[in-house]
Batch of 3 targets.
Target 1
Amino acid sequence: MFSSNTRTLVVVGAQWGDEGKGKLVDVLAEGADWVVRYQGGANAGHTVHIGDRSFVLHQIPSGILHPGVRCAIGNGVVLDPDTLFTEIDGLVRDGVDVEGRLYVSDRAHLVLPYHKLVEQGAAHAEAQLNRFRSSKRVNCAETIAMLERLGERLLPLAEDVGLVMHRAVRSGAAVLLEGAQGSLLDIDHGTYPFVTSSNTTSGGAAVGAGIAPTDIDAVLGVVKAYTTRVGAGPLPTEMDDPLAGQIRTLGNEFGATTGRPRRCGWFDAVVVRYAARINGLTDLAVTKLDVLDTIEKIAICIGYEYEGELHEEFPADLTAQERVVPRYEWLDGWREPTADCRHIDELPSAARRYLDRMQELVETPITYVSVGTKRDQIIGKGLGTRD
Ligand code: GDP
């Protein structure tokens, strides 16, 4: 997607996360000079499959898997330094050269063991009530000793990432800003309170990388050909079993970090059109089309029925989000494998009709279609080209 006009590109999830951003970033990193993570923390996980090998990355941008691409962790990331070094050491063991290619913003906040302790306590209502009478104590001396130990490795990576990125943008470098989670988990625009604690949408990319919003040239929204969500919260198009179980198995819909089964639903054009608006999506990447290969009839949600009316915009009200009844349009499935397709014309005509309807409803052109976990299982124009 990089061209003379597109030098700074944001990749965001346009559903509830796990859309396959890692794969798209990996593909696009081929043409990038820099890949920057701008929000989230160690709880986010991308899985990238290269040949027979799989890499799960939590904090390090997946661009690290491309030799020569430089990677930065922006100020918007809440950095767990202990996990960072476990991740670095793992990559080095797997033969990935990290030395001199990874920068950490000197403004990033650190997550330390006592933060986790507090959060674990507050998971239980009783503990939350008794919080200030908890028998657990933070050992300051131990925390300082830990920071001194980690500091020896962390400080050499520390940089003014905002300044470095500003210079990179000015010099015309191809910069990829890598989002974590998804737009519907955005603290302001998502399905609050079932959200994350940061702005996952493209506005957060400028803030979290320390660059200006006007530096961003394009925003690629990644969506699955269906919908998934982890944990509680509204999911209007949620499927019933046995179909949900079938899609979960076919799509391997289990969390990369926690192994938690993901809830599955039909593609929700109301949600993605909303994501297109709040992110300013210029392009869409549809992943996991292959997962629907065996499904006979495929639904797309085109609106919500609520209190006797049809709504085409995603509501802010949580009660409405929970109670809306999706209005579906049913399309024929293609019932043939797509994993070997490498050009849009090679896709079965029913799959093309499904994608056409999707881009029409979302009002955003589809630039990439992913048909498998592997790096080369992708259909797209201008794949990661440097000009
Ligand atoms: P991310 O955080 O958005 O990168 O998503 P995850 O890594 O949690 O989940 C995406 C999973 O889907 C990974 O295991 C990918 O390898 C896999 N994946 C990505 N694209 C495709 C695709 O087109 N088809 C299939 N079957 N799997 C895919």
Target 2
Amino acid sequence: MLRRVLLAASASDRIRKIIITAPYTRDVVTRFVAGNTTDDVLATAGRLLADGLLATVDYLGEDTTDPEQAAAVADTYVRLLDAFGEAGLAAGGRAELSVKPTAIGLGLREHGEKTAAGHLARICAAAAAAGTTVTLDMEDHTRVEATLRILAEVRTDFPGLGCVLQSYLRRTEADCAALAVPGSRVRLCKGAYQAPHEVAFGARAEVDRSYARCLRLLMHGGGYPMVATHDPRLIAITAAQAALSGRSPASFEYQMLYGIRPAEQRRLADHGAQVRVYLPYGRDWYGYLVRRLAERPANLAFFLRSLASTR
Ligand code: FDA
């Protein structure tokens, strides 16, 4: 019911206008989104980096249906990398990029996979020139196979390309085992999309248990784990797994969304951990926020909780 209401809201131009002009909307948006422009995201990333945190920047937008738009998104990422390189923020991977496969063409009616792989290679080349890396976001379960194929293809030339795996999917433990190898960068999250029971765990506890199993595989494997969660229990399990597997703080990182649990981000960094903040920017924030809520109603509580708390 809630999901239907939110999806209707996201599709309605009238509701869109009401929401984007409502008095408190700007406050909510600026809490989660770095702003509209390259200058905005440069300034916010610069502040995070000066504070001893790392950043991964997402240019908002997804589900591109037009080849020209897919190319324009890739162009924007390349220009962004130039700007980050010039500002001295990209070197050593301090600020890297997060890219949604459907934003660069995966969902195109014709040659989507080939188009996305081509644009991604172009972005990875610009990232390498700027001294940083790219991580492929993971979208809904129907995109996983194609996204992993694109990852494998582009990694042959750009081995630093990382990807996201989602613990709510039943297949993910096997994917973690396959990708926990030297040189591989894997961001583990719970998953933010709707998925049927056949492919995904439904109960929160099952998703969490799957996360813990996947985490163990990644932390004991040879790759570079990127632990993307705000969950205190999983953060504590990560520290325990790091101790058990003999990992140094430099050999993995925690990741959280911009605006969510900033005090915890600070606490982890103060204890010597690497903490990367996922930093979305761009004018397409409405879809980012509302579709996230609609895709998985549990996220509504997640965002509302965030508004009420900074811890
Ligand atoms: P969850 O939302 O279940 O929260 C668990 C617990 O964390 C809560 O019970 C509470 O204790 C604590 N907590 C959470 N938020 C809090 C707050 N604001 N204040 C206090 N306590 C709080 N998804 C996807 O499908 N594809 C992707 O590519 C990505 N990419 C991605 C990158 C990064 C860096 C992150 C952090 C997340 C993603 N996600 C994602 C989103 C992810 O799948 C998931 O939906 C959210 O991170 C929420 O899940 P949590 O693991 O934080 O736990």
Target 3
Amino acid sequence: MEYPIPKGVFDILPEEPQKEDAWRNSNHWQYLEGVIRELAREYGYREIRTPIFERTELFVRSVGESSDIVSKEMYTFNDKAERSLTLRPEGTAPVIRSFVEKQLHTQRPVQKFFYIGPMFRYERPQAGRYRQHHQFGAEAIGVCSAEQDVELIDLLTELYRRLGLKNLKVALNTVGDANTRAQYREALQTHFQQYLPRLSSDSQARFSRNIMRILDSKAPEDQEAIAAAPSILDFLSSEARAHFEKVCALLTTIGLDWEVSPRLVRGLDYYNHTVFEISSSQLGAQNALGGGGRYDGLIATLGGPDLPSVGFATGLERVLQAMEKQGMQFPPDPRPFIYFIPLGDRAREECMKWTTALRHVHIPAEIDLSGKKIQTCLQTANLLHTVFCLVLGEDELRSGQAQLKEMDTHHSKQIALDDLVGHIIRSYQRKITP
Ligand code: HAM
């Protein structure tokens, strides 16, 4: 192949030749996106679409210079006017940029947005990790109470429930307020100092740049030090503790299963208070289906009013893979109601007329324009699982009659061509309202 697809990205096709790649079937994506849109509407989240690229500075400021995303994973380039732009690696910063720029707080006191779209991270590709992935994200701006955090955790778990996902783990933690984190970082410095020469090179770099991120390391040589590290829960200010306890109590009230995970810190620097991650035991190393948390300072950092926010994002590839692994059945591909096979020019003109008339009244009709032999056309009709099939040749045109074949029953019925469209419309109506 002279022009292969770049590494770490993939096509989403209406038909996926390899069974193990069935999660890339575009019908599965449409189904998932439909469930998401309905859910978001019911929870009062409205769609926001931001550009695929933003000024690089936006992500540096919000996600954090020392985060993996900003320090190693961004697709950054200069445009022709030498402005530094970056393909968005995540969706929160662009939503907040738009919120601040358009002064959306003046429209309503609480804004709830959702988005679905591609994100770009230059990561080492592997199963569940891509250089272009897709997220469904939701952000609620303007409410600082624990109920808002719980609404978002419930929204995400309800999505997974509606999709039939099982064996999920909801991990919950708090990263407290600025005071909490300052004290916690000091304790981590003392703790990790003694392990420093034995830590992975990534964690050694994190020691001075962003020490809490060591807790996120998966390197085997870091695990002993991480297991022995102090817990942030012992450093919470009274305000941070009260918020966290309220979130825990509310989650129990609404009947959700969750567990506290004191080492959960998340990879983006904008979080404070609640953080959460939902993982699936169906996925391998990349088992995080979705995650999020509160990020109260971000709007002010980006030049807007001092408003609190909380949100999450979930990776659509991983959701579809988990569904596939569980053997979930997706709705079947849409099938034509009638498939016309014209033989010859005159027949083709007639069939074209009927196909168009039926499509104009919302009946899925298909015409075989391949010009292939009748056997091949019939094979296509079978492949598409059409409900009816009609072959039109010179004989049928001459007699004004044709055989309408019902494919499931193999039953054929003689139909007068001048009533064909009317007949199909009546059958279709009977089928959808029996
Ligand atoms: P994140 O944890 O970086 O959070 O990404 C959210 C989800 O996107 C992950 O749980 C994972 O399912 C998926 N994901 C991330 N990177 C990849 C990748 N390379 N390949 C495949 N899937 C991936 C955020 O992006 C935050 N903006 C979430 C948020 C919204 N926090 C507050 N509001």
